[in-house]
UniProtKB/TrEMBL annotation:
<comment type="similarity">
    <text>Belongs to the binding-protein-dependent transport system permease family.</text>
</comment>
<keyword id="KW-0472">Membrane</keyword>
<feature type="transmembrane region" description="Helical">
    <location>
        <begin position="151"/>
        <end position="174"/>
    </location>
</feature>
<feature type="transmembrane region" description="Helical">
    <location>
        <begin position="123"/>
        <end position="145"/>
    </location>
</feature>
<keyword id="KW-1003">Cell membrane</keyword>
<feature type="region of interest" description="Disordered">
    <location>
        <begin position="1"/>
        <end position="22"/>
    </location>
</feature>
<protein>
    <submittedName>
        <fullName>ABC transporter permease</fullName>
    </submittedName>
</protein>
<dbReference type="Pfam" id="PF00528">
    <property type="entry name" value="BPD_transp_1"/>
</dbReference>
<dbReference type="InterPro" id="IPR035906">
    <property type="entry name" value="MetI-like_sf"/>
</dbReference>
<dbReference type="InterPro" id="IPR000515">
    <property type="entry name" value="MetI-like"/>
</dbReference>
<keyword id="KW-0812">Transmembrane</keyword>
<keyword id="KW-0813">Transport</keyword>
<keyword id="KW-1133">Transmembrane helix</keyword>
<feature type="domain" description="ABC transmembrane type-1">
    <location>
        <begin position="85"/>
        <end position="265"/>
    </location>
</feature>
<feature type="transmembrane region" description="Helical">
    <location>
        <begin position="33"/>
        <end position="53"/>
    </location>
</feature>
<feature type="transmembrane region" description="Helical">
    <location>
        <begin position="247"/>
        <end position="266"/>
    </location>
</feature>
<feature type="transmembrane region" description="Helical">
    <location>
        <begin position="195"/>
        <end position="216"/>
    </location>
</feature>
Length: 284
């Protein structure tokens, strides 16, 4: 017997469905343009406040946006920026690699076994509360004027974030899935790969997003104090030359490119890795 509710007539969808899809696309387009307009308005307001402050204080105290922009263009055009920028990015990601190698296993043990959580919990919590400045100074004391100082500082700052988020992801695993997997004869290796890993991936990306925002700042700070290359080293050089324009130019270039990496690289990678999640949109 035919069910009129379940039977769908063949052929193209009804006009009402097409109209609803068109309205949804238009609504999404309007929201996207609204966000872009608000973003542009925020930048315009920030530059206007900067220009007003420059006029009130003095261009020698606070250079205008146009002056700093010219200096930024000269730095990029000379080719110096890319060499120092790549040095800073390399040290940042090397520190991330060390943090992942150390923090992920610690987080897994903390989330998987109660006694390991008791063993690591206080140490990870204390490591996460230590100011980044302390890590920067300590790294320079240990390694002096070398590239290892910034790498160690980034690793020390990032590892607690990775460990804590991985532990939370492990504890968030649905235990009924683990029980069902064991009932169907899955090995421990298969359970880790097919149950635990997909569950903790969102938590790992959350840790990366949070720690990256802190890591590149402490990396630049370590270079300012005692680096021999990188953007922080150039900022310190401009400071020694009493060039406020140079300090602001290098700082803003570094911030701009790090934001590009975070939004265009990390966010796209996160969207690709978490595309299997049907109930939420990643990177909104």
């Amino acid at each position: 017997m035919s069910n009129p509710v379940l039977d769908v007539p063949p052929g193209p969808p009804p006009a009402s469905w097409q109209e609803g899809e068109v309205r949804a696309r238009r609504s999404a387009s309007r929201r996207r343009w609204r966000r872009l307009a608000l973003l542009a308005a925020g930048w315009v307001a920030m530059l206007a406040v900067w220009q007003l402050a420059s006029d009130l204080l003095s261009p020698t105290v606070l250079p205008s946006p146009a002056t700093v922009g010219d200096e930024m263009w000269e730095i990029v055009e000379s080719g110096d920026f890319f060499e120092d920028f790549l040095a800073s990015v390399g040290k940042t990601f090397a520190g991330f690699g060390v943090a992942a190698v150390v923090g992920a296993p610690v987080g897994y043990l903390m989330g998987r076994y109660t006694y390991w959580r008791g063993f690591f919990h206080d140490g990870v919590t204390v490591a996460g509360t230590i100011p980044a400045l302390v890590y920067a100074v300590m790294s320079l004391i240990i390694f002096g004027l070398s590239d290892m100082g910034p790498i160690l500082a980034v690793a020390l700052v990032s590892a607690p974030y990775v460990a804590i988020n991985v532990a939370e992801g492990i504890r968030g695993v649905d235990r009924s899935l683990v029980t069902m997997s064991k009932a169907f004869g899955r090995s421990q290796r298969q359970i880790r790969r097919e149950v635990f890993v997909p569950t903790i991936v969102p938590f790992v990306f959350a840790a990366v997003r949070m720690s990256f925002a802190v890591a590149w700042k402490v990396e630049a700070l370590t270079e300012v104090f005692g680096g021999s290359s990188g953007v922080g080293f150039q900022i310190r050089t401009q400071y020694q030359l009493f060039s406020i324009r140079g300090v602001l130019a290098w700082m803003l270039l570094f911030i701009a490119f790090m934001l590009i990496i975070e939004r265009l690289v990390l966010r796209r990678l996160e969207n690709r890795m978490l595309a299997w999640r049907p109930t939420e949109r990643v990177g909104r």
